User: What shape does this take?
Amino acid sequence: MKIALIGLGTTGKIVAEYLLKEKVLAMVFCRKGSSQAGKDLGEILHRPNTGITVESTEDLEEKLLQVRPDVLIDFSSPQFLSENLGILAKCGVNVVSAVTGYSEMDMRRIKLVAENRRFGVVLAPNITYGVNVMMIMAQIAAQLHEDYDFQIIEENHKNKKDSPSGTAKKIAATILSTLDEMEEKAVPIHSIRAGDIAGRHRLLICGKHDQIEITHTAFSRVAFAEGAYKAAKFIVGRRGLYEMKDVFRIQKEQQEEEQWENSLCYKEEAGEVQSYGM
Ligand SMILES: NC(=O)c1ccc[n+]([C@@H]2O[C@H](COP(=O)([O-])OP(=O)(O)OC[C@H]3O[C@@H](n4cnc5c(N)ncnc54)[C@H](OP(=O)(O)O)[C@@H]3O)[C@@H](O)[C@H]2O)c1
Assistant: This one.
């Protein structure tokens, strides 16, 4: 598999290291006019040369057609995909966008192009497995405790551009979609931007006499790289719009199917499977 990466900021650099280790990184893009353009990726990551030259997004189509990556992982900003959606679809390069802060209009356009132009996109403001488990837990809590108050506290590094985080908004939307439609309830989000916090999301579920807390903490940005690589492997050869919950659900179903087939083979070899045919 060949992966292209855009965005060599706080998170993108860690993702680049991860993809280099996996030997799947084929090309890296930066903004037009960026000082990173033309440099070997190794120079930016403070490691020996990698043989990958960082390219600007100028003449993107031509550059993509030369290398033909299977997937582009995006850790840049909402601007990139909004501006280059048509080119990516035309070149048949599927996308994993970890970017947060898309407008409603951006989201609608991405959905429309993914569905009509027949290429694959994973929109993943919540790219780690842990946060996705947290969402399932929040959904269960919302079903059980409609009379409780839900509040989210999210902490991220001080240079993070959007606030509240995309993950916090997604957790809030998940809870609201689970609560009784007639119930008028808000899920307030409190954002903290400080130091180099990789990412922490805390959901408080407060009742009159007790409280539940669900917390997800990313110890390092490798958690985001791992999630992005999982999503990239998933989206190769697929079409349409997906979320991380689809990535994890479908991978789990495939694993279960493989386990079942393996156990069947084992039983056949052991002569435990009987044929009831005519
Ligand atoms: N889904 C998740 O779980 C998750 C986890 C971590 C981060 N993220 C998201 O990933 C994105 C990046 O995060 P970060 O913390 O790494 O931010 P960052 O440090 O600001 O890095 C962003 C990088 O992208 C580049 N960039 C921005 N707009 C671009 C464009 N239009 N074309 C090309 N390059 C562009 C920036 O270049 P310049 O410096 O030249 O502007 C910078 O190198 C954010 O949206 C963040 O919320 C999501």
User: Anything to note?
Assistant: The mean pLDDT is 91. The chain has two domains: 3-127+223-242, 129-217.
